[in-house]
Amino acid sequence: MSRFFILHLLFPRFCLVILFSTFYFLDSNSVLAASVGWEAPGEVGVNQRFQADVFLDTQGENINAVEGEFEFPRGFLGLKEISDGDSIINFWIQRPKLNLDNKIIFSGIIPAGYSGKGKVFSVVFQALALGEAPVKFSNLKILLNDGSGTPVQASVLSASIKISNIKASEEILGAKLADSEPPESFQIYLSNDESVFGGKWFIVFATQDKNSGIERYEILENRKWKIESRSWETAESPYLLEDQSLSGDVYVRAFDRAGNYRTEHLAPVNPLNWYENWLIWIIIIIVITMFFYARRKKINAKNIRKNDQKSA
Question: How many CB atoms lie within 10 A of CB 103?
Fold first, then answer.
C-alpha cells in the first residue's frame, strides 16, 4: 500500500491541499489537454426527473487527479440525488456533495491514471420551471499522470437543459437499470500513530461501487466467544477501535445506494486465551455433568441389582 494511499485514507483534505497546491507551485506551465462537461437529456418537461452524468475527456492524455465545483440554477433544477457509481475515480478525497453555496464539490485520484472519456459522478435533478437551465463548472484542477503531477488547463464544455411543457413521465430519464451487485472487495488496515487518536489502535478502509455508489459503512467489533451484546454501527474511516487489546474480530460492511453490501473481516491480533473462552468452559461443564450423571446412573443400577438379590 503506497504512502500517499495511507495519507489519503487518514487525512483526505490534507492530501488534497498538498497534492494540488504543491504541483501548481512546482509547475505553473499548464497543458491544455482535457475537457469537462455533462451529458443529459436535451429537453424535459416540468416536474420530470432526469439523470445527468458529469464526465472527463482526457483527449489522449493520462490523468490521475481531478477536482472542481459544479453549479446549477436552483430556480430551475431541484437536486434529488448524487451518485459516484461507475466512476473513473478510484479513491475519493472529497466525494461529490452539495455545499452551503449550492455547489457540488468533488475531488479524487486515479492512482494508475486514466485516458479516455469517462464518468466522474452522476446527479438526478427534477425540473422545476419553464426555461433554459444552464449549469457550469468552476475551480477545476486536473493533474497528469506523468510522475510530476503536471497541471492541465481544462476546457469546460457549455451545458444547459431546456425545460418545456412536454409531458413528464414517472421514470427517471437517463437512469440505468437497478443495481444488484455489491460493492467491490476491500481490505481493512490496522495501524497506530501518535498523531492519530493519541497513538491508539485504529483501522482504515475504503472501497467503491461501480453502479449506484457507496452510501455508508458499518462496523461490528466482537470479542470472540465473549458474552456481549453488540450491534452494527455506522462509521467512517479512520475508525478508533473500542477493543484496544486487539483480542476480537472486526467486521466492516460497505453498503451501496441500492442496499447491496459487502462484509470484510479483520482477524484478532491477540486472540483470547483458552481459559477466557466461555464456550470451552461450557463444554467442560457439560462433559463433567454427563460424567457424573452416567456415574450416578451406574451406581443406582448397581444398588437396584443388590436389592433385588437380597429380596430373592
Answer: 18
